[in-house]
C-alpha cells in the first residue's frame, strides 16, 4: 500500500507530490489517515527557509486530525481509553522524551531539548516517511499523546486547536490572566483570535484586539467572539491607543498584552500599555526575528512588568484548546475560510502567507 504526500524539497519552491510505501508499524506506533491538516503561519516560514529546525526533504504540517488505521499493540489515549481502528483522534504535535530535566523536574515538557515535532523537525527521506500532516497518512510515534474524539465535529474546524489553540492556552496561562482583568491582544490571526477566546474563558472582564486596516474583517470577527472593542493601529496613533486603554482601565493599563504579531515592531507601541505588575507575552514569535532595544527602567523594572516568552505548548494546553472548541460557545467554523485538496498545498500556503485566509485547511 502507498500513500501520497506533498514534500518540501527546496525552500521557496513548489511542494512536490510523492508517493511513499506504507510501512509496517514498529512496536507502539499508530498509523492514522489524515482527515484534516491545518496550514499554519509557521508552515509559511518553514517553506521560505526561515526556521532553523527544518530538515529537507520533509512533509510539512504539524496540525492534524486523523482516523486510526492500525496500531502496533494496545494503545490508550490520555484518559486510558483503548484506541482501535476507526477511532478519530487528535495528538500532541510535539514528542517529548519524558526523561530530561525540563520534562521531569521543571514539569515544562514544551522546553524538552529532545522534543521532535511532526511537520517541523522530522524529515521524510527514511522510512516510515509519513512524518507530517500534508499527507494521506501519519505515523504517530510510541511516546505520542493522543485524545480520542467521540464528538461529531467537522475536523477542519477542530484542527486549529492543535497548534494555534494550544499555543493560545499556553500564552494566556503564562500571561497570568485572572478574573476581572483587562487584556489587549495584538494581531487578529488564528492565534490572536484563540487568545481572545481563551482569555475570556479564563475570566477576563474585557479583551480588546488591535490590528491593521487590512485586518478589518478579522477584527469584526473578534467582536463576534466577544471582544470588548478593537483598535485599528494604522488609523489610530500610538498616543490615542494609549489614551483609549487608560480610559477603559481607569488609568491602570492592560493587565496583560498578548502580542501575536510575530514581529518586534509592535513592541515599542504596546509595551507602555501594560499595567504595573502586568505581563507582555510574545506567542507570535516562533522564528528568529532580530533584536529590539526597549526602555528597561520605564516599561519593565519601574512597573514590575513581566516580559514573557511563550514557546509552543504541551498536551495540557492542547486539551484545553480542544475542550474550548467543543463547547460550541463560539463560531470557530468561521476561522476556516479556505479548504483545499492535498495537491493544492502550495495555494494553501500562498493564501496563508498573503493573509487572504484566516485559516486554510487541507482535506486529504
On the 0 to 100 scale, the average pLDDT is 97
Q: What's the CATH H-level homologous superfamily of the largest domain? A: Medium-chain alcohol dehydrogenases, catalytic domain
Broad structural category: alpha/beta
Number of DSSP helical runs? 11
Predict the CATH topology of the largest domain: Quinone Oxidoreductase, Chain A, domain 1
What sequence of helices (H) and strands (E) makes up the elements? EEEHEEEEHEEEHHEHEHEHEHEHEHEHE
Please tell me the total number of domains.
2
Measured as a percent range, the helix fraction is 10-25%
Largest beta-sheet characterization:
7 strands, mixed
Query: Using only CA atoms, what is the Rg?
Result: 20 Å
Number of extended strands: 18
In CATH's first tier, which class of the largest domain applies?
Answer: Alpha Beta
Poorly predicted runs are: none
Strand content: 25-35%
Shape: globular
End-to-end Cα distance, whole Å, is: 16 Å
CATH architecture of the largest domain: Alpha-Beta Complex
